[in-house]
Amino acid sequence: MIKMLMGLLTIAAGIWLVLQLPAFSAPGLGAQVSAQLASSGVQSPVTAVLLNFRALDTLYEVAVLALAANATLSLKSATALPEAAESAAMLDWLVPRLLPVVLLFAGYLWWAGSSRPGGAFQAGTTVAGLLLLLVLNQRQLSLPLDSRIARAVAMAGPLWFLVVGSATALAGRAFLDYPDAWTKALILSVEAFLTAAIGVTLALLATGGRQES
Amino acid sequence: MTGVEVPLIYVVTGIFIFMRGLYALFARPHLLHKLVAGNLAASGVFLVIAWSPQGGPPDPVAQALVLTGIVVSVAITAYAAALLVRLEQTSGKPYLEHDPDK
Amino acid sequence: MATLNIIFDLLLAVLLAATAWLALDGRGLARSVMLVLVFGLLLSLVWIRLGAVDLALAEAALGTGVTVVLLIELLARLQGRPRD
């Protein structure tokens, strides 16, 4: 009974929302972005928004990611991952050969972010995938994702972002308002730190944090 | 980067998916189902955000918003998954108490 | 070309909606998780169709890859524990 009422209510709300669509006519910000793109230090409009025009939002975003990782770690809920099968011959063969290729691809995505689709989040996820492969293949390399070093890398992304922002603020500019000559270098440095940090953070989140031995 | 105009059908689909997710979020007792419902509802919202009302390709600001949304979704999902495991460990039940269906 | 595009849009939208519907019908947890995987891949196709390659990459890697890894692991942890 209640479920039927809820169903009807959501159907009605959905129809109402569709009917409201023509009322949305506010122009987007696309024109402003393309007008200012030349001063953003990068050629990709999405990267320009993420790391220059609305860089503060991206700082908050990686802060959310770091917060989620810390909260997950503090729950200590992770039990050890289910035991891997006896033989993982394919992983043994594949992982060492895949490692340089995936690293190269992550590097490409990081560099490409300034001029075409790509960037820290895509590159970071690639790194996370690589780390997860290594975790699945612990017989070759033990990779303590909850170690101090891993956690330091995970925090270095948002921290470096914060350092850059504070430096511009101390230099008399607005927070995260990069000086013109340094814009591209600063954006790329922030993205490099973020790539490593997002990679470790996502791998940490995906394994549930602590691995009890 | 050039894109194409967002056909209205994707926006309507987005609203449909959001509503379906919202309904399931309340109607499904199992918390994993609720987690999936929240994720899919968020995807529906992304489809609506990407739409530009005057036509034209997805706005770069909207794309940045959706990108942020995807990352935050993943962070929330991971934290919720950890909470769910914890709840199951302490209460033995992967769903909430006082469920009208139970 | 235009008709072909419309047919493709319709097909993709219907598939997306149907996958979301089935994923949330509450019949089995593993079924839901697998359909989320399908849904995410379809959604990245939509982003490519719209020319938003950044979003397609992020959706495929984060929205689908990482999310489904999380969900499968959650599934294994929920079902793998011995009941008492």
Q: Describe it for me?
A:
- The complex is a heterotrimer of chains A (213), B (102) and C (84).
- With 213 residues, chain A is mostly helical.
- Chain A contains 8 helices and no strands.
- Chain A has helices spanning 2-20, 30-36, 45-53, 55-75, 89-112, 120-136, 148-170, 183-206.
- In chain A, helix 3 (45-53) crosses helix 4, helix 4 (55-75) runs antiparallel to helix 7 and helix 7 packs antiparallel against helix 8.
- In chain A, 36% of the residues are buried.
- Chain B is elongated and about 50 Å long.
- Chain B contains 3 helices and no strands.
- Chain C has 84 residues and is an all-alpha fold.
- Chain C is built from 3 helices and no strands.
- Chain C has helices at 2-23, 29-49, 53-80.
- Chains in contact: A-B, A-C, B-C.
- Chains B and C meet through helix 1, helix 2 and helix 3 of B and helix 1, helix 2 and helix 3 of C.
Keywords:
heterotrimer, B: 102 residues, mainly alpha, 3 helices, C: 84 residues
Outline the secondary-structure elements.
The complex is a heterotrimer of chains A (213), B (102) and C (84).
Chain A: H1 2-20, H2 30-36, H3 45-53, H4 55-75, H5 89-112, H6 120-136, H7 148-170, H8 183-206
Chain B: H1 8-27, H2 31-49, H3 60-91
Helix pairs in contact in B: 1-2, 2-3
Chain C: H1 2-23, H2 29-49, H3 53-80
